[in-house]
Amino acid sequence: MTGQVFRLSASFELPLEDLEAYLEDPDLPPEIESIERTRRNNILLIKAVAAGDGVGKYTPTAQLKASIDEKRVYEEEPPRGKRWNSLDEDEEIPSELVTMANFSGDREAVLQNTALQYEMFRVLTDIAFLDTEGTLTAITAVDGSLEPLKIEDGEPVPATVEVVEVPVDNTDEGDGGVDWRENPYISE
To answer: Roughly how many angstroms between the first and final C-alpha of the chain, as a whole number?
Structure first.
């Protein structure tokens, strides 16, 4: 199966702990032997290691990029009829600080490099199913056929590809170009 990723938009996050648990033993496509993780400050890179000799030793393989930050997660909702800001100062709402991995942006911001790109997109799709809040949308081509994908809050959502004709204005007015036929600076 050959595939390409044409459009990709990610806007989801999940606890880093859940992501790391998945990455310990992921279900990888046959073209990927393993994955390497690198963390640089608040950026996590998940890079594909090619199986076999199909990809050159010095060819950069596809990698997923996630930003890492901390988020306060509240264990319970405020008492009925009260708002968070109207609680007494003495009442402490149980919460914990959770380190989150955020996959956010378009294709190049989330899925970088072209070698094994479609295969790493499949890994990203598996990660999106672990998410509880957020969206992953994409248009891919598998064996020459366009396939839409939408995963919202960890669940697949029906999606379609719509081809729209954009009207083209063939007039020369207001396009900012030079009218070479009526240009007084060009001599005949």
So the answer is: 60
Q: Would you say residue 26 has pLDDT above 70?
A: yes
Q: Is the dihedral of CA 172, 173, 177, 182 positive or negative?
A: positive
Query: Distance between CA atoms of 159 and 139, rounded to whole angstroms?
Result: 10
Q: What are the pLDDT digits (tens) for 105-151?
A: 998 899 999 899 999 999 999 999 998 789 999 999 998 899 999 99
Query: Whole-angstrom Cα distance, residue 183 to residue 49?
Result: 58
- E-state strands within 54-174: 63-74, 95-106, 111-112, 133-142, 145-152, 155-156
Q: pLDDT at position 188, please?
A: 54
Tell me the β-bridge partners of 47. Answer: 36, 63
- For 38, the 3-state DSSP assignment is strand
Token pair, residue 68, equals: 């890492």
List the chain domain ranges: 3-74+95-156
Q: What is the distance, to the nearest Å, from the Cα of residue 109 to the centroid of all Cα atoms in its chain?
A: 7
Strands (E), the chain: 3-15, 32-40, 43-50, 63-74, 95-106, 111-112, 133-142, 145-152, 155-156
Going by their DSSP bridges, the two strands 95-106 and 145-152 should be labelled as: unpaired
> Residue 9: is it exposed, middle or buried by C-beta count within 10 angstroms (0-12/13-18/19+)?
middle
